[in-house]
């Protein structure tokens, strides 16, 4: 019997935990594809954590709210274009769909970018000027996270005539229905799978090129590796920090659109919280401070938690993700790829 | 305590760098108590002093990464006291910092390219020319062009730090202890190259503990002690000054003998630093 019930009592009944490898076997490709979709979203958000950590040694816990702001940003843009949330997918042909997706993604990117850069200006920069200790930055990050959430929770509805924000999730505006394109084994590769995974690969690829091949990127790496010498070479640390927040915000905004394609009713004030923690875990898993680590960590985390979900049961998805993080950190504290962006100051 | 007048330029004309009564504090502790010094165009000027005398603090303040609590810094006739660090690089002041500051995760070529981050080249030809100059001064860097900076030896990293600074085509090159931690033979080589760079027309302000080498190659020198300039003069004259000899050259004031070992002066300077200012002969006479 492949099914293992740990207890027959109500506390540990079959519903609570199971151990069913065969179940994973039956749905191996489907769970992997689903994991890659999640991983794509984690990876894009993880880049923001890892870049900011690289240059500031700061875990920007408010990054999950940068992502959340992106969801509202793209939603607002679609409303401005005349879409109404009626629950049905719009179909004006593939060209228009791609156009609308592009506009929504740009709007999400723009809003997230502005929120990320403003956050840096308002919350972190004044602390740097006063050379505040790291703990103060961390507490500020958590505080900023709540401020942004509660802004969307209580203030935004009043500013927008109850159309945006508030206690409930937004009614979905669906741009794309999931449709199977072809199947691999038991799994179905849908249009959404391709959009999510390809977008993540392209965007992280572009970011990688910017950081490793351009002059801007050299400035970012210089500040990450040795901030004092970077300043002596004429790199403006403040400008690099701003740029870093901007890039992280842009990718989080892209992730926000992808997330709403996958989870159409996920647009809510606290909708970034768990996803942010997962993305942060992905960044640590891959090696925080390491750009390629963020992509790898995101994909591994996404796939692993979906596999785990099929083995142990639906409710264990989050537990798997964090247990994996703990395990990796026990045996490899620098993450899978190690810290690279700021190797100088390990 | 009265300050001796340190400004005795050996060449005429306007100085390239003029520092007057510069004071710098770390929090409440003042590290520089109002020092003044000048560097004239084309000169090689050295700052000498024991550990903690304020040499590196002076260099960092000139580069703009430490704020002045009082005093002024004039560069090329322009008051740059409040200018930001990256703007000073753009204006032509670049530093090869203490400890070299090579970016460990960048290749040699990428490190060199950091040198002109804030000083753009007008054309590809200018860039090629500058790069060729650096590679001809330091052929070793050419061999290791694609190697990560962090994997190189101390001497190679120092060459890289100087070469990187040259890529900025500096009007004033600041070198902070280029001989630190290097073998005597490498030190000789580095100093030869520093002289060569200076003779090619680059103005240099050098901080050194290796007083013997530095004084013999400089036009002028300032001697610093506990945050003040206590003596200044022509390099070669200070080399034979009895009090300087005793304090910084590891030779007794009355022995008069020349030391041929390159390591001896450095050892003497370190010992002098360890002994502290109290045991050193009074240089303010």
Automatic annotation (TrEMBL), chain A:
<feature type="transmembrane region" description="Helical">
    <location>
        <begin position="192"/>
        <end position="211"/>
    </location>
</feature>
<keyword id="KW-0997">Cell inner membrane</keyword>
<dbReference type="GO" id="GO:0042941">
    <property type="term" value="P:D-alanine transmembrane transport"/>
</dbReference>
<dbReference type="GO" id="GO:0015808">
    <property type="term" value="P:L-alanine transport"/>
</dbReference>
<feature type="transmembrane region" description="Helical">
    <location>
        <begin position="97"/>
        <end position="123"/>
    </location>
</feature>
<dbReference type="GO" id="GO:1903806">
    <property type="term" value="P:L-isoleucine import across plasma membrane"/>
</dbReference>
<dbReference type="GO" id="GO:0015190">
    <property type="term" value="F:L-leucine transmembrane transporter activity"/>
</dbReference>
<protein>
    <submittedName>
        <fullName>Branched-chain amino acid ABC transporter permease</fullName>
    </submittedName>
</protein>
<keyword id="KW-0029">Amino-acid transport</keyword>
<keyword id="KW-0813">Transport</keyword>
<dbReference type="GO" id="GO:0005886">
    <property type="term" value="C:plasma membrane"/>
</dbReference>
<feature type="transmembrane region" description="Helical">
    <location>
        <begin position="267"/>
        <end position="288"/>
    </location>
</feature>
<feature type="transmembrane region" description="Helical">
    <location>
        <begin position="319"/>
        <end position="338"/>
    </location>
</feature>
<feature type="transmembrane region" description="Helical">
    <location>
        <begin position="66"/>
        <end position="85"/>
    </location>
</feature>
<feature type="transmembrane region" description="Helical">
    <location>
        <begin position="295"/>
        <end position="313"/>
    </location>
</feature>
<dbReference type="GO" id="GO:0015192">
    <property type="term" value="F:L-phenylalanine transmembrane transporter activity"/>
</dbReference>
<feature type="transmembrane region" description="Helical">
    <location>
        <begin position="240"/>
        <end position="261"/>
    </location>
</feature>
<keyword id="KW-0472">Membrane</keyword>
<keyword id="KW-1003">Cell membrane</keyword>
<keyword id="KW-1133">Transmembrane helix</keyword>
<feature type="transmembrane region" description="Helical">
    <location>
        <begin position="38"/>
        <end position="59"/>
    </location>
</feature>
<dbReference type="GO" id="GO:0005304">
    <property type="term" value="F:L-valine transmembrane transporter activity"/>
</dbReference>
TrEMBL record, chain B:
<dbReference type="InterPro" id="IPR027417">
    <property type="entry name" value="P-loop_NTPase"/>
</dbReference>
<dbReference type="GO" id="GO:0005524">
    <property type="term" value="F:ATP binding"/>
</dbReference>
<feature type="domain" description="ABC transporter">
    <location>
        <begin position="17"/>
        <end position="251"/>
    </location>
</feature>
<dbReference type="InterPro" id="IPR003593">
    <property type="entry name" value="AAA+_ATPase"/>
</dbReference>
<keyword id="KW-0813">Transport</keyword>
<keyword id="KW-0067">ATP-binding</keyword>
<protein>
    <submittedName>
        <fullName>ABC transporter ATP-binding protein</fullName>
    </submittedName>
</protein>
<comment type="similarity">
    <text>Belongs to the ABC transporter superfamily.</text>
</comment>
<dbReference type="InterPro" id="IPR003439">
    <property type="entry name" value="ABC_transporter-like_ATP-bd"/>
</dbReference>
<dbReference type="GO" id="GO:0016887">
    <property type="term" value="F:ATP hydrolysis activity"/>
</dbReference>
<dbReference type="Pfam" id="PF00005">
    <property type="entry name" value="ABC_tran"/>
</dbReference>
<keyword id="KW-0547">Nucleotide-binding</keyword>
<dbReference type="GO" id="GO:0015658">
    <property type="term" value="F:branched-chain amino acid transmembrane transporter activity"/>
</dbReference>
<dbReference type="GO" id="GO:0015807">
    <property type="term" value="P:L-amino acid transport"/>
</dbReference>
<dbReference type="InterPro" id="IPR017871">
    <property type="entry name" value="ABC_transporter-like_CS"/>
</dbReference>
<dbReference type="InterPro" id="IPR030660">
    <property type="entry name" value="ABC_branched_ATPase_LivF/BraG"/>
</dbReference>
<keyword id="KW-0029">Amino-acid transport</keyword>
<dbReference type="InterPro" id="IPR052156">
    <property type="entry name" value="BCAA_Transport_ATP-bd_LivF"/>
</dbReference>
């Amino acid at each position: 019997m492949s099914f293992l019930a740990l207890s027959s009592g109500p506390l540990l009944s079959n519903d609570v935990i199971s151990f069913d490898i065969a179940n994973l076997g039956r749905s191996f490709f489907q769970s992997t594809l689903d994991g890659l979709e999640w991983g794509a979203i984690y990876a894009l958000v993880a880049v923001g954590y890892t870049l900011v950590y690289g240059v500031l040694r700061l875990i920007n816990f408010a990054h999950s709210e940068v992502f959340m702001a992106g969801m509202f940003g793209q939603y607002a843009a679609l409303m401005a274009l005349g879409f109404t949330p009626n629950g049905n997918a719009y179909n004006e042909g593939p060209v228009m769909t791609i156009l609308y997706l592009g506009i929504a993604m740009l709007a999400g990117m723009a809003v997230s970018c502005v929120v990320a850069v403003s956050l840096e200006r308002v919350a972190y920069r004044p602390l740097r000027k006063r050379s505040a200790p790291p703990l103060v930055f961390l507490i500020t990050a958590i505080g900023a996270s709540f401020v942004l959430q509660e802004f969307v929770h209580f203030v935004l509805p009043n500013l927008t005539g109850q159309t945006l924000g508030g206690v409930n999730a937004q009614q979905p505006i669906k741009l794309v229905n999931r449709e199977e394109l072809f199947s691999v084994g038991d799994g179905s590769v849908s249009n959404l799978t391709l959009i999510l995974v390809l977008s993540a690969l392209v965007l992280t690829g572009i970011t990688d090129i910017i950081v490793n091949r351009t002059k801007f990127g050299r400035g970012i790496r210089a500040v990450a590796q040795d901030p004092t010498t970077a300043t002596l070479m004429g790199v403006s640390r403040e400008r690099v920090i701003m740029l870093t927040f901007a890039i992280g915000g842009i990718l989080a905004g892209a992730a926000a659109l992808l997330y709403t394609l996958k989870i159409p009713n996920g647009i809510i004030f606290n909708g970034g919280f768990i996803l942010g923690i997962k993305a942060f875990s992905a960044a640590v898993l891959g090696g925080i401070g390491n750009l390629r680590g963020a992509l790898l960590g995101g994909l591994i985390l996404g796939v692993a938690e979906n596999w785990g979900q099929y083995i142990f049961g639906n409710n264990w998805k989050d537990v798997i993700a964090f247990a994996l993080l703990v395990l990796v950190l026990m045996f490899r504290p620098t993450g899978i790829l190690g810290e690279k962006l700021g190797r100088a100051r390990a | 305590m009265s300050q001796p007048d340190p400004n005795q330029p050996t060449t005429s004309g306007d100085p390239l760098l003029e520092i007057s009564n510069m004071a710098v504090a770390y929090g409440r502790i003042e590290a520089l108590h109002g020092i003044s010094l000048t560097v004239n165009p084309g000169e090689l000027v050295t700052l000498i002093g024991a550990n903690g005398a304020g040499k590196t603090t002076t260099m960092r303040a000139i580069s703009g990464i430490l704020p002045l609590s009082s005093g002024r810094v004039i560069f090329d006739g322009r008051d740059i006291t409040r200018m930001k660090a990256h703007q000073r690089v753009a204006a032509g002041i670049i530093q090869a910092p203490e400890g070299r500051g090579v970016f460990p995760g960048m290749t040699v070529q990428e490190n060199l390219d950091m040198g002109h981050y804030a000083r753009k080249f007008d054309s590809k030809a200018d860039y090629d020319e500058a790069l060729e100059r650096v590679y001809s001064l330091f052929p070793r860097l050419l061999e290791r062009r694609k190697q990560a900076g962090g994997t190189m030896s101390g001497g190679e990293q120092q060459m890289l730090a100087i070469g990187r600074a040259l890529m900025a085509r500096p009007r004033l090159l600041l070198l902070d202890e280029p001989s630190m931690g290097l073998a005597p033979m490498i030190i000789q080589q580095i100093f030869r190259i520093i002289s060569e760079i200076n003779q090619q027309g680059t103005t240099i302000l050098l901080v050194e503990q290796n007083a013997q080498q530095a004084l013999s190659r400089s036009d002028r020198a300032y001697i610093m002690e506990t945050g003040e300039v206590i003596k200044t003069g022509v390099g070669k004259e200070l080399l034979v000054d009895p009090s300087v000899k005793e304090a910084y050259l590891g030779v007794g004031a009355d022995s008069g003998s020349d030391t041929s070992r390159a390591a001896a002066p450095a050892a003497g300077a370190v010992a002098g630093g360890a002994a502290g200012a109290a045991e050193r002969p009074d240089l303010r006479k």
